[in-house]
Design goal:
Length: 152
């Protein structure tokens, strides 16, 4: 997996981009980590910031962090909406419940898809209309004793 920004590196990078800190004032450990991410480079014997890469990395970090927060909000809504066995919901209902102004439709859909990919949710259509996709808990089949019929 590629190296990614973490919360502390995010703060250091934000300080670099805003001009509150210069690359020469970074601790060696932070400078090495940012260099491994391709954000810092050596120019004429001095550390220099690659602003294009820095802004790109920062944008991806913010997007990833926002998606994690959206996943948490969607998980809380699903716990409330899908209380009963066999209940289902639609994407729009979840989006409205988490807040249409808080998260985009795409972020909520990615959250639902991520829960489906780990096996917590399943999706199904009641018709050929793509807007009629329903989401439900992926419930386990109850374990029990079953007879095995063998051919005689």
């Amino acid at each position: 997996m590629a190296k990614q920004l973490n919360q502390s590196l995010h703060a250091d990078l934000d300080n670099l981009l805003s001009g509150r800190r210069t690359p020469s004032r970074l601790t060696p450990a932070v400078a090495v980590q940012l260099a491994q991410l391709g954000i810092l480079k050596l120019e004429n014997g001095k550390l220099a910031l690659d602003e294009v890469k820095a802004k790109s990395r920062l944008k991806r970090f913010i997007k990833r962090t926002r998606q994690i927060k959206c996943n948490n909000a969607v998980e809380k809504v699903l716990a409330e909406v899908l209380k009963e066995n066999g209940s289902c919901t639609q994407h729009r209902q979840v989006w409205v419940a988490v807040g249409r102004n808080e998260y985009s439709r795409e972020e909520v859909l990615k959250s639902l898809q991520s829960f489906r990919s780990v096996g917590d949710l399943r999706s199904f259509k009641s018709s050929t209309n793509n807007f009629q996709v329903f989401w439900a808990r992926n419930e386990e089949v109850p374990a029990g004793e079953f007879e095995v019929n063998t051919p005689q």
